[in-house]
Design a protein that fits this description.
Elements: E1 5-10, E2 13-18, H1 28-43, E3 48-53, H2 76-84, E4 90-94, E5 97-99, H3 101-108, E6 111-115, E7 119-121, H4 135-143, H5 145-154, E8 158-159, H6 160-166, E9 171-173, H7 178-192, H8 212-222, H9 228-241, H10 244-259, H11 262-276, E10 294-297, H12 301-312, E11 317-320, H13 324-343, H14 349-352, E12 357-360, E13 371-374, H15 380-393, E14 399-402, H16 409-414, E15 422-427, E16 436-440, H17 447-459, E17 463-467, H18 475-492, H19 496-506, H20 512-519, H21 521-531, H22 541-548, E18 561-562, E19 571-572, H23 574-586, H24 596-616, H25 623-633, H26 643-650, H27 652-663, H28 674-681
Parallel strand pairs: 2-3, 3-4, 4-6, 5-7, 6-9, 10-11, 10-13, 11-12, 13-14, 14-15, 16-17
Antiparallel strand pairs: 1-2, 7-8, 15-16, 18-19
The structure holds (S)-3-Hydroxyhexanoyl-CoA.
(S)-3-Hydroxyhexanoyl-CoA binds next to strand 5 and helix 3.
Length: 690
């Protein structure tokens, strides 16, 4: 077994170095060795100890993969309790990050020094739990109740400078060697005759500045539907109102309660899938091509967004438009995007000054790009013309990517003499903000081209998901299906406003009709026009009528909702309701009542059913790929883990039976996906296929 904690001496100072790559997670083996090292220090004649992390950070927290499994001694809370009671002082020397259980270990030490740039925080709530190794009891004693509540319930880390202001660390030092910083600080403490200083012995913290009930109201508003934040605040409250020991017991009780929830399971699934999606067996050992310059064809919203994402990643970008005027407009859009990035703290002024962006109207100017992404009008003819030009000018080995959201990437590739270099890179609008990137891979694409698209996506900060070729790939294909289910419900009696409200209450950032207004009703119209109506699909003709009335959504102030000064986020419109009633009357539909539960169940059943087809046909390689697409591109609530995780939770047999029940109304639309039936019949789950 490799040693995960090294012990050495520097005069009277013992140095305990945690070395458990990649992030020094506090898994069982490490806890055993850390406890042994602490005991060694106790028996040793060293007078003070420094605890430091090897590699890029101090401690990344508890080992997330151990949650839900039987706990093994020593538990982190006991380990930290032991550490805190060591009679000689212990200093935490923090660099990189001290997160979750890692910060709890630091709070179990008696003194804390952090290198500039280090991040300290409690991300537990983003995993559906709370700091369960004393963090909720020690942090408020050290930084005060309000600051601790903010840290613990937001999950957001603070940097070392802020940590020092808060009192979370005793001092912050410049430099890049935490060992040296720890030794220097320990030396000073020795000279001063510093003694062990357990946080547990500090008095209980005062109640927060605001009432506990105000905190709860705010947390419910900030994180609707989620429970970890509320329980975390409850644990902090225990710190104020109970003895340290009783507070710890209360923290443990609340922690155990959260560990057993589907929310915790879903959030941990989301944490790992962010990393798993890019791990494709087909790319094992495949080296991506080098990317040092990027070209973008088309400077509309998508093209400008893609160019922005690429310059933000530090890449030189050349953007091609048809006219000087259009090129100037694109540049302006990109500048505006970059200003926004500076405002949001995503880009420093200094880096902003160094961006490398060229606009051009000449295809030749793209010839040296390593990757070119086409983002022109969504038409096969137009795209093929662009690819024909690119085929002529691009250097050998360049990757030719299309940002199409529906079209057959294989057909686009087929028009070139370099099919193996052509791939889909489907970004989501706004492309410099949205995390999702679908990498659409036709059979003809070379593996290193796929690897290059993934590497470029990562560099741009995207979560890249592999998709096969079909109409709409993973996301838009599933979207058109659940949108059709919503349309069907409207026709049968549900109002679009009720549908939006029900789905927002489920946890979606926005309901489908608000999304449609944001995207523009022209997008849906063009899609329907291109596809024609498909068998079984409900004719959504009020959508078309709204479009014909010039109600294009937010951009025209009217769509499904009215947007004006009184209601910048939109309010329902009688005119839309009347129009829908007319359509129902024309079709002789007697409207019926849909409860919020009916709405959510139908909508999600349609989503899962189509997702099962997408997986069954190999368009998505694994159910987790579908979860990633819906989580990072379509506003599915992260704390529900994605549609496949939701489906496993509800039970696949239940979903199969729901489809059969809905089919009584509309047998063409509601046909159970073969994979759903197969898994349900064999009592398996989607996660078995991950
Ligand atoms: C906690 O502490 C609970 C306690 O309060 C109570 C306990 C009783 N565990 O992200 P990266 C893996 S909850 C297991 O690409 P980066 C990760 O999956 C925990 N594995 O690196 C990946 O594996 P692979 C609170 C972990 O440099 C590899 O390490 N802590 C953990 O971009 C590299 O990760 C957190 O929530 C973990 N804790 O970012 C921190 N962390 O190579 C979660 C990472 O196989 N972690 N892995 O794909 C992070 O935020 C980032 O990983 C970090 C480094 C910022 C540390």
């Amino acid at each position: 077994m490799t040693e995960t904690v090294h012990y050495d001496r520097e005069g009277q100072i013992a140095i305990l170095t945690v070395d458990n790559p990649p992030v020094n997670a506090l898994g069982h083996a490490l806890r055993v060795e850390l406890l042994a090292a602490i005991e060694r220090f106790e028996a040793d004649d060293a007078e003070i100890a420094v605890l430091v992390g090897a590699g890029r950070l101090f401690l990344g927290g508890a080992d997330v993969s151990e949650f839900g499994k039987p706990p093994k001694d020593p538990w982190l809370p006991e380990l930290i309790g032991h550490l805190e009671r060591v009679a000689k002082p212990v200093v935490a020397a923090i660099h990189g990050a001290a997160l979750g259980g890692g910060l709890e270990v630091a709070l179990g030490c008696h003194y804390r020094v952090a290198l500039a740039g280090a991040k300290l925080g409690f991300p537990e709530v983003s995993l559906g739990i709370l700091p369960g190794a004393g963090g909720t009891q020690r942090a408020p004693r050290v930084v005060g109740t309000d600051a601790a509540l903010e840290l613990i319930t937001s999950g957001a880390p603070v940097d070392a400078t802020r940590a020092q202001v808060m009192g979370l660390v005793d001092r912050m030092v410049e430099g890049d060697d935490p060992r040296l910083a720890g030794i220097a600080y320990a030396g000073e403490l020795l000279e001063q005759g510093a003694v062990a200083r357990p946080v547990a012995d500090m008095p209980a913290p005062a109640a927060p500045g605001r009432d506990w009930s105000d905190w709860n109201v705010e947390l419910e508003a900030r994180h609707p539907g989620q429970i970890a934040q509320i329980k975390a605040a409850e644990a902090v409250r225990a710190a104020c109102e109970m003895s340290f020991e009783d507070g710890l017991a209360e923290e443990r009780r609340l922690f155990d309660l959260l560990v057993d929830t589907p929310q915790r399971e879903a959030l941990v699934h989301a944490f790992f899938l962010e990393r798993q999606v890019s791990k494709l067996p087909e790319l094992k050992g495949v080296e991506p091509r080098a990317v040092e310059a990027v070209g973008v064809v088309g400077g509309g919203t998508m093209g400008s967004g893609i160019a922005t994402a690429a310059v933000l990643a530090g890449l030189p970008v050349t953007l091609l438009e048809q006219s000087e005027e259009a090129a100037d407009k694109a540049r302006l859009t990109i500048e505006k995007n970059l200003d926004g990035a500076v405002k949001r703290g995503k880009l420093t002024e200094e880096k902003r000054g160094r961006i490398d962006l060229t606009t051009t109207t000449d295809f030749e100017a793209l010839s040296e790009a390593d990757v070119v992404v086409e983002a022109v009008f969504e038409s096969m003819d137009v795209k093929r013309q662009v690819f024909d030009q690119l085929d002529h000018v691009m250097k050998d080995g360049a990757v030719l990517a299309t940002n199409t959201s529906y079209l057959d990437v294989g057909e686009i590739a087929g028009g070139t003499r370099r099919r193996a270099d052509v791939i889909g890179m489907h970004f989501f609008s706004p492309a410099h903000v949205m995390k999702l990137l679908e990498v659409v891979v036709p059979d003809t694409t070379a593996p290193e081209v796929t690897a290059t698209a993934f590497a470029l996506g990562k560099r741009m900060g995207k979560i890249a998901v592999r998709a096969g070729v079909c109409d709409g790939f993973i996301g838009n294909r599933i979207l058109s299906h659940y949108r059709a289910a919503a349309t069907e419900m409207v026709l049968q009696g549900a109002s679009p406003y009720r549908i939006d409200a029900a789905l927002e209450a489920f946890g979606f950032a926005m309901g489908p009709y608000k999304v449609a207004d944001l995207a523009g009703l022209d997008i849906g119209y063009m899609t329907r026009e291109r596809k024609g109506l498909q068998t079984g699909e409900v004719n959504p003709d009020w959508d078309d009528r709204l479009y014909e009335m010039g109600r294009l959504g937010r951009k025209t102030g009217r769509g499904y909702y009215i947007y004006d000064e009184d209601s910048p986020k939109g309010r329902p419109d009688e005119e839309v309701t009347r129009l829908i009633e007319e359509v129902r009357a024309e079709r002789g539909v007697e409207p019926r009542e849909f409860t919020d539960t009916d709405i959510v169940e139908r909508y999600l059943t349609a989503m899962v059913n189509e997702a099962a087809r997408v997986v069954g046909e190999g368009i998505a390689k694994r159910p987790l790929d579908v979860d990633a697409v819906l989580l990072f591109g379509y506003g599915f609530p992260r704390w529900r883990g994605g549609p496949m995780t939701y489906a496993d939770h509800v039970g696949l047999a239940t979903l199969r039976d729901r489809v059969a029940r809905y089919a009584e109304d509309n047998p063409d639309f509601w046909q159970a996906a073969p994979l759903l039936v197969e898994l349900a019949d064999s009592e398996k789950q989607f996660k078995d296929l991950n």
